[in-house]
Amino acid sequence: MKSVKHYFLNNVLLHIPSRRCRWFVYSKFFKSLGVNSSLLMGITVLKPENIIIGRNSVVNNGVLLDGRGGNLIIGENVDIAIDVKVWTLQHDINSHQHTTIGKDVIIEQNVWIASNAIILPGITIGEGAVVAAGAVVTKDVAPYTVVAGVPAKMVSRRTEDLNYTLNY
After folding, report:
1. Whether 87 contacts 35, CB under 8 Å
2. Which residues belong to the active site?
3. How far is residue 20's CA from residue 36's CA, in Å, rounded to a whole number?
């Protein structure tokens, strides 16, 4: 049954051309989906019942949201750009049985995650932070910082005077 649900969600529902219809249907699958959030066509969602998305957030096409290893909590006014991967589950590199390790991921409000970034399990991205394009986040990101690179490191600070509401 899970594979049918997964197939239906990722290959049928996520390709509905109406943003409002997608939001309505997603709201039945996700743990919580905030008002005015926008999930664009062509995303992949794994175990949506562990995913919370706050108000006015946007998830662009090609994004992978993984809820298999724990909760994935995305705050309000979060912009997740094209082809970002957010993982809550990974393999234990020291396991003789190739076991998995799951950890929650928390993305606080007013965060911008640029294209092709990868967020690994157990990460918290602080309020107002920016993850640059192509960055691989292996450690928590402090609020209002900009991180870039592989692995991601702080490159600058962002203004703390953020006053916007995303509306896609």
Report:
1. no
2. 91
3. 9
